[in-house]
Design brief:
Layout: E1 2-9, H1 13-25, E2 30-34, H2 38-49, E3 59-62, E4 71-76, H3 92-109, E5 114-117, H4 122-133, E6 140-142, H5 146-160, E7 167-172, E8 180-188, E9 191-192, H6 193-200, H7 205-216, H8 218-226, H9 231-245, E10 250-252, E11 255-258, E12 267-270, E13 273-276, E14 279-283, H10 290-309
Parallel strand pairs: 1-2, 1-4, 2-3, 4-5, 5-6
Antiparallel strand pairs: 7-8, 8-9, 10-13, 11-12, 13-14
């Protein structure tokens, strides 16, 4: 297995944006692009390669399943995209059918890679990919609520007039309508969020709920305005890939397998996890208020209901 080699399956807006972000990062020396439309993959390879004189040396090429055999990381964005008026859950049946065909073909050539699922609904499809692949659960992960958490940090930073990198707060649960913000542990560089607001003379009552709703509905607004979201998720995937390749042991809210944590059994959902070269190395049980725990249970139940409906 080549730790400097990754593959991206699906060359739509999301997949091609991820390829660009990873090319700029210099994390990989080889990138394989795959798409059901081979010419689309080849076109993206040409476009990306023309920028290589301005980036780190990278071998980028259009491939097929056989080219996945020595990949360290396989990123899957393939599937139907979310359209205006659709929820992520609307995509379930279409994308599960695609995964039923695709995942066994991946597993047939590579049993040692890390699968990073980005297609929506990401929590459901990560569970499906795990079941169909036969991989250990820690090596099948999803992009989870990493982007949602970044959106929350950005909006909080703008509201508080501080660098968003100094804001520490999580969005957890489903990457979707039942996700929740963990306000009870939110802080600004170690200063409790409520205390920070008081120090700065900022009202933080209803404002925090408005920020949460803006985070939850961000994708709908972006899709309404420009048709799709792809830059933010590309940066989120780059961050996850960095933690994997560099064995950083970073805490990220990826889609991880949860079995016994928070009272949840046999489920994938966005939860703070330690991410290193083995994938999701450890799921963290962070402190939640009673209300937050109830909301997480609701989010988990939402996902469990969908899995039962599709026979998993």
């Amino acid at each position: 297995m080549d730790k400097q080699k990754c593959a991206i399956i699906g060359c739509g807006f999301v997949g091609s944006s991820i390829a660009f972000a990873l090319m700029e990062s210099g994390l990989f020396s080889t990138m394989v692009l795959m798409d059901i439309n081979r010419e689309k993959a080849e076109g993206e390879v040409m476009d990306l390669s023309h920028g290589l004189p301005f980036a780190s040396p990278t071998h980028i090429y259009a491939g097929d399943y056989e080219d996945l055999k020595d990949c360290f990381l396989i990123i899957i964005t393939a599937g139907a995209g979310q359209k205006e008026g659709e929820t992520r859950m609307t995509l379930v049946d279409r994308n599960v059918a695609i995964y039923r065909e695709m995942i066994p073909k991946i597993a047939a050539v590579n049993q040692d890679a890390i699968l990073l699922i980005v297609s929506n609904p990401v929590d459901i499809l990560t569970y499906v990919a795990w079941k169909l692949s036969g991989f250990p659960p820690e090596r099948v992960i999803g992009s989870g609520t990493v982007l949602d958490t970044a959106r929350l940090k950005y909006l909080l930073g703008r509201y508080l007039n501080v660098d968003s990198r100094s804001v520490h707060a999580f969005i957890i649960g489903e990457h979707g309508d039942s996700e929740l913000a963990v306000w009870s542990s939110a802080n600004v560089s170690g200063v409790d969020l409520s205390d920070f607001c008081d120090i700065c003379g900022i009202c933080h009552g209803d404002a925090l709920n408005r920020l949460y709703l803006e985070v939850r509905d961000s994708a709908y607004r972006v899709i309404e305005k420009k048709g799709a979201t792809y830059y933010g998720i590309a940066m989120a995937v780059r961050r996850i890939a960095q933690a994997l390749v560099r064995d950083e042991h970073s805490v990220l809210t990826i889609t991880s397998y949860v079995n016994g944590h928070y009272g949840v059994e046999d489920l994938y959902l966005g939860i703070p996890s330690v991410v290193g070269s083995w994938g999701a190395e450890r799921v963290l049980d962070i402190a939640l208020s009673d209300e937050e725990h109830d909301n997480l249970m609701h989010s988990a139940q939402t996902l469990q209901n969908v899995l039962r409906q599709i026979g998993f």
